[in-house]
Amino acid sequence: MIRFLALALLLMPAAVSAQDMAITHAEAWPMTGNGKVSDATIIVHDGRIVSVTASGGVPEGTVVIDAGGRMVTPGLMNAATQLGLVETGAADETNDKSSSNTTLGAAFDIQYALNANSVLLPVARADGLTRAVSYPGAAGTAPFMGQAAVIKLVESGDTLDHAQAAMYVQIGSATLSTAGGSRSAQWQLLRNALTEAGRYKPGKPDQPITRLDAEALQKVLGGQLLVILTQRESDIRQAIALARDFKLRVAIMGANEAWRCADALATAKIPVILDPMDNLPISFDQIGARLDNAAILGKAGVPLAFYASGNTIYLSYDAGEAMREVAGMAVANGLPYETALASMTRSPAAIFGINDHYGTLAKDQDADLVIWDGDPLEPGNYPWKVFVQGHEASRETRQTLLRDRYAKPAALPPVYQK
Fold first, then answer.
1. Cys-Cys with 23: which of 9, 42, 135, 226 at CB 3.0–4.6 Å?
2. Buried/exposed 117-133: b ≥16 CB within 10 Å, e otherwise
3. Are 252 and 236 in contact (CB under 8 A)?
C-alpha cells in the first residue's frame, strides 16, 4: 500500500509555483491614483505584487526581466464579454450564453457552462486581457438575462474568479416583444419581481415567483450588483430611480445616451459600462449616441468600464485588442489617458467586486501585468510579455500557429527545382 501511494504521488503533476521576479527599467502605471513611475522596479513574489518603486533594488537571487523602458500596466479587464460561452456563433452547440427555459429567469447562471479550453481565450490573453466579465445573453423570463461571472484567463485550471458577480437585465427596444411591447411593462415586471422576492416565503403555496428566481433576486436586494443593459436617457433615469427606491447597487451597460444625465449618475454613484466607439444609432433608443460620451461621463465623475461590441462580434472575438482600440477612441475624444487605463483595470475590478486582489499594481494584488511593446491604446502595439498571477503566459495562439505555418512558402518538389 505504501509503495502504491508513493508511486501515485510521483505520478501526480507537480504544482507549478508562480515565478518570483523583478521587472526593472519599466515605465510603470500602477493605477493606484498617483500616475506613472518612471524607471520602475516591480517586485513579484509568489504570484503577488510586493512593490513598485522608482530605481528600486532587486533582492538577491531574483529573476530579473529588463523592460528596457517599456510600459507596464496591470493586466486588462474587459467589462462585457461572452468569453467561454460562445465559440462559433453559427454553431448552436458552441453557444451557451442564453436560455429559453422559462423556469430560469433571474436564476439563469452562466458559470456552469464556462469553457476553459475555448480557443478564443489565448487570443484575448495574448492581447493583454487577464480578467473579463462573461455575461448572459438572455434568460427565459423578460426582462432578465441572468447571472454573470468574472473569469481569469489562466493558461490551465479553473478560469472562474468570481461567480454570480452581477445580475443582468435588459430594458429597451431590443426586448420589447418579450415583455408585452412596452418599456413600461419592462420596468413594472422588474419592480414587481424585486418586490415579490422580498416577500417570498419558502414553502408557501401560490406565490407569483419561483423559488430559484426569488433566491437570485434576494441576493440583489442584499447588495449584489444589478447591471441594467439599456441605452435611452429616460430608461437610464428610471434605473437611477430603481436604485434609489430599492436601495440597490446598480451599473448601467450600453448607456449611449448616458451623457445626457451624467451629473445624475455621478450623484447616484452609478458606474457606466460602455463602448466608446458607439456613435451611430442602430435603434431609436440610441439617437443621442456620440463619441465623447465617455469624456462627458468621466468629467462628471462617473466610474467607467469599457467593452467593445462591434454588433456583438467583439464580445467573444478579439476581446482584448478591440477593447484597447475603443479606449484609444475615448482618449481621442477627450477622455484623460489615465482614466482610460483605469477603465480597463482598476475601475471594472471595483465595479465587479474583485478589487481586493486585482486591478492595480499595489502590494498584495495578483501579479497580473503586461509589458507592452508600445502604447497599449495604439492598436498596432501588442504585449511583449503577459503575466497572470505571476505566471508568464504563452502568446502562442491558433492564429499565430497558422500564420507561422503558411508565412513561408513550402519548398517545391525536386522535380520543379532547378
1. 42
2. ebebbbbbbbbbbbbbb
3. yes
